[in-house]
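As a warm-up, study this chain.
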Amino acid sequence: MHVTAAHELLHAAYTEMGGSEKAVITRLVVAEAARMNNHKLNETLAEYEKQGGFDAGSRADELHSFLGTEYGPLSPELERHYAKFFTNRAHIIATNTKVEAAVQQKIDSFTLRGNALNRRIDNLTAMGSRMDYLSRIGQIYTYNSMVDAYNAERQAILDEIESYKAEQANLELLFAEIDSTQLFLTIRHL
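Now compare it with the structure written out below.
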């Protein structure tokens, strides 16, 4: 929340700048972004461009806010500029980094959990195929000895699927919250 507020503060500051100051800051943020050539920043700006209504002025405004709240250290000129707004810009950047890391950790954990669940399903499918084969060749005793384990694993997987769906719903809520913040940032500039 603090990073979003800082980001929005910088949008307001950029909007209120006089023409000559805005021209200087625009030149500085564009040059800094080119120097950094940061993949994440470039992807974010590309997403904004896909949404339409994103001209050079909007791009500079976004660069001004993103660079000020998510990246550092920057050129001495930009660091002096942002010092007008923040006494501890490094703290804002660190907070943003922590939030992004926490979100990425949730995504990674969810992905690993899904992969593990898929392996369990594959193993259960293989076990079912083995049981079908045993039944076809008349190995009923061996087949029967596997039924309880198969049923227990099937139920465990069904329970895990329900839990996984609940986690998925929670992540979708988190992403909707993040997206609504991004949508707010986008609409603000249309």
